[in-house]
Amino acid sequence: MKRTIKKVGVALGLILIFHGGVVAAEVSSGAAQAGSRVNALVKRDAIELINIAGKQRMLSQRIAKDYLYIGKHIAADKAGKQLKASLKEFNANQKKLAEMINDPEIKNLLEFVNMSLQELEGIVKKPFSLDNAQLVLDLSESMLEGSQYVVDSLTNLLKIKESKIVAVSGKQRMLAQRIAKYYIAYQAGIKDKNTVDQMNAAVKEFSQNHKTLMENKDNTATINQKLAQVDKLWKIVYKFYLNIEKGGLPFIVFTTTDDITRKMDEITKLYVELYK
Question: Could you give the angle at which helices 31-71 and 20-29 cross, rounded to 10 degrees?
């Protein structure tokens, strides 16, 4: 039994998911049965962990987007409530990740993300300005990069094929919010080439990922139904997003990207349940 746990621990990158009661029960049931149960626990908790880490990517973008929408006085009430909820959820998820992961390199990245988060929390409380908006954008990029590293590290360490689909589906939530972030950033006055390039890249990646999910052979009927809903909406609204330089549709962009994020969150949860 000790050997089984040791192997699982290495595969998980020292993720602590074992509970005394479960292990004790497995020992009494025999080594073969114990190994099977431990593997099931590993897969279930690992995929859920990737989902949590993946959601941090979306929240990093939504926080910045909300700050910019508030600054432009567009959907300000909704953006304000969303900003407050996003900061609270991001902090809670960081604590969960810190408690469940013991890998030194990943923990170090989590600490870096926490530092960026603390700085961002201070800036979003200040009056809106273009300088502050640029700082928020930069910090959201640092938080995104750190969170993406955590997702990639867990996916590579776990070597569970299904975890890649969960990671891709979860990334769609982030890309939708990233699109809204760069759209409103351009309208707010950050009209450089990078803003346009990042928007176009996010739209392109969303389309590629959507195709991957639509072609996934493990999809249930419910997953396919919900992906079809996203597909119908995406085919209409992506053209609005690509007209970033023309602008004029900030409220539509806010509501449609939120709708896509919500739908992709539901789909990601279905994938988590499917692959547990």
Answer: 150
> Could you give the C-alpha distances from 57 to 11, 99, 138, 221, in angstroms and in order?
24, 19, 14, 27
> Running DSSP on this structure, what letter comes out for residue 94?
H
- The tokens of 58 are what? 């979306």
158 or 134, higher pLDDT: 134
What is d(CA 135, CA 124) in angstroms, rounded to the nearest whole number? 10
Average pLDDT of the residues in 101-128:
93
Q: How do residues 165-206 score in pLDDT, each as one tens digit?
A: 998 999 999 999 999 999 999 999 999 999 999 999 999 999
**Structural contact between residues 128 and 158, judged by C-beta atoms closer than 8 angstroms:** no
User: What CA–CA distances, in Å, run from 127 to 85, 130, 131, 145?
Assistant: 19, 10, 11, 26
Query: Which of 186-202 are b and which e, b meaning 16 or more Cβ less than 10 Å from the residue's Cβ?
Result: bbbebeeeebeebbeeb
Contact between 47 and 159 under an 8 Å Cβ cutoff? The reply is no
Helices (H), the chain: 2-11, 20-29, 31-71, 76-100, 104-123, 130-158, 161-188, 193-214, 221-242, 250-275
Residue showing tokens 């600054």: 71
- Are 58 and 173 in contact by the 8 Å Cβ rule? The answer is yes
For the chain, how far is it from start to end, CA to CA, in angstroms? 22
